[in-house]
Amino acid sequence: MFGVSLDSTAALQQFRVTQALPFHLLSDPRGELADAFGVPHAMGLAKRQAFLFKDGLLVWRDLHAATERQADDVLAAIARHG
Questions:
Q1: pTM of model > 0.85
Q2: What is the pLDDT of residues 38-72, one digit of tens each?
Q3: Using CA atoms, how far apart are residues 14 and 22, in angstroms rounded to an integer?
Q4: Does residue 56 contact residue 35 with C-beta atoms inside 8 Å?
Q5: d(CA 59, CA 65)
Q6: CA 26 to chain centroid
């Protein structure tokens, strides 16, 4: 599992530590990965979205991910798609 952000590597490392995240965060400061996935972004901010891949195939996506329930939504998708 990975998170992707337009933030710098240093900022993401600090955020991962302070939030005790159990996954890696990838820095995409030029928005190249965001562009590849069609994630809207402007002025250093990207729209929150979630994608789940299994065996190299996209099996689930949430284009309107909400911070307060995103973890539950992703866990439910993982349970459905194994």
A1: no
A2: 999 999 999 999 999 999 999 999 999 888 888 88
A3: 13
A4: no
A5: 16
A6: 9
